[in-house]
Design a protein that fits this description.
about 100 residues, Alpha-Beta Plaits, four-stranded antiparallel sheet, about 40% helix, about 25% strand, globular
């Protein structure tokens, strides 16, 4: 499945660990606090558990959105949707 992970994490150390967990799961950073990529359902579940352990549920927020390829292709990207310095060809190919 295609999966978006978006977060607002106050603690620098926790934020860094969460971003590394997203990268390790095979997701690509498309903005500073947004990741996108293809991930298996069990990997998404494992990532979710890992993030829950790292975040402070009283202050932080994390959104994990699974979607199909058709849904992704119908996504509207407005303005400077992605940081062009961060986005990879693999992510670009998802929108073709």
């Amino acid at each position: 499945m295609i999966c978006w992970v978006m977060y607002d994490i106050k603690n620098d150390k926790a934020r860094t660990k969460i971003s590394k967990a997203c990268e390790k799961a095979g997701l690509s950073r498309v903005q500073y606090s947004v990741f996108l990529g293809t991930i298996e359902a069990n990997e998404k579940d494992a990532l979710q558990l890992q993030i829950e352990e790292l975040m402070n549920t009283d202050h932080d927020s994390v959104y994990i959105f699974p979607m199909s390829k058709d849904e992704l292709k119908s996504t509207a990207l407005l303005g400077q949707a992605f940081d062009k310095k961060m986005i990879t060809d693999e992510v670009k190919a998802m929108f073709i």
